[in-house]
TrEMBL record:
Presence of the UniProt keyword RNA-binding in the record: no
Domain ABC transporter: 4-228
Keyword annotations: ATP-binding, Nucleotide-binding, Transport
PROSITE patterns documented for this protein: ABC_TRANSPORTER_1 (PS00211), ABC_TRANSPORTER_2 (PS50893)
Coiled-coil ranges per UniProt: none
GO molecular function: ATP binding; ATP hydrolysis activity
SMART domains: AAA
Pfam families: ABC_tran (PF00005)
Protein name: ABC transporter domain-containing protein
InterPro entries xrefs: AAA+_ATPase (IPR003593), ABC_transporter-like_ATP-bd (IPR003439), ABC_transporter-like_CS (IPR017871), ABC_transporter_ATP-bind (IPR050166), P-loop_NTPase (IPR027417)
């Protein structure tokens, strides 16, 4: 029962048109699992279903035997377009996410909160951007903020939708390493969508290969030998 369990997941945005069909998966807790496949194969749809952003789906999404949408399961999402609030500073973007994740909980002390926020910004190498507004940042910087925000809520499940796809190769390599370091400090059960086969192999303990149409369940490649 442990880990992320996907039972008979089907998603149709329109009646009779499956965006994602017949998915059955068990992913052990505390792993990074990469999701790869061509455009339109349902990768984002899978993340949206788990994140609770779809009005409906068929099937079950469980974490340690309970619905992923139970309050105990915190889900951190790094969406493709970063999803930052443009009229809030970087610091406040993270503060708001922390508040939503644990309403009234955690440290209500603002100083302590600021310390935690700064810690996650530092871990992403962007402490100096705390007071800036998202739209004054480069794409790569906004991406780092979105990742810091996802880690800052200490998620049970972490979902990333092609977080590095818009970056040049050098920036990407740097961020992959920073991501791995942060993940090791907080090893949430992670689904990482990417277009990049090399990245999928580098980061994923398992690689979930999705195909458009989903006539068959996705193939799962086991990469754990590399991580042993
Ligand atoms: P991927 O992330 O692999 O590119 P998506 O999950 O975005 O795939 O899309 C899977 C299928 O669902 C595609 O056929 C896409 O056109 C369709 N789809 C995605 N989002 C919507 C939506 N909001 N409304 C209708 N169809 C959608
Ligand atoms: P991705 O790159 O993740 O597949 P897309 O660029 O396909 O995302 O889609 C961007 C947005 O458009 C998403 O919010 C998605 O829900 C929506 N979308 C995608 N396909 C369709 C569709 N066929 N009909 C309506 N909305 C769609």
């Amino acid at each position: 029962n442990s880990g992320l369990r996907i039972n008979n997941l089907h998603v149709a945005y329109q009646k009779g048109q499956l965006a994602l069909g017949e998915m059955n998966l068990t992913l052990p807790e505390h792993g990074i699992y990469t999701v790869i496949g061509p455009s339109g194969s349902g990768k984002s749809t899978l993340l949206r279903a788990i994140a609770g952003l779809l009005p409906g789906y068929e099937g079950e999404l469980l974490f340690n035997g309970r619905s992923v949408h139970d309050k105990e399961t915190l889900i951190g999402l790094v969406p493709q377009n970063y999803g930052l609030l443009p009229w809030k500073t970087v610091r406040d973007n993270i503060r708001i996410a922390m508040k939503i994740a644990r309403p009234g909980g955690g440290s209500s002390n603002r100083q302590e909160q600021d310390g935690k926020i700064l810690h996650w910004l530092e871990s992403m190498g962007i402490a100096q951007l705390a007071g800036r507004f998202p739209l004054s940042l480069s794409g790569g910087q906004q991406q780092r903020v979105a990742i810091a925000r996802a880690f800052a809520i200490l998620p049970t499940i972490l979902l990333l939708d092609e977080p590095f796809s818009a970056l040049d190769a050098l920036t990407r390599e740097g961020l992959q390493q920073i991501f791995i370091d942060n993940w090791q400090a907080h090893p949430a059960t992670t689904l990482f969508v990417t277009h990049d086969v090399e990245e999928a192999i580098l980061l994923g303990q398992k690689i979930i290969v999705m195909l458009p149409g989903q006539q068959e369940p996705p193939e799962i490649l086991d990469n754990s030998a590399v991580f042993a």
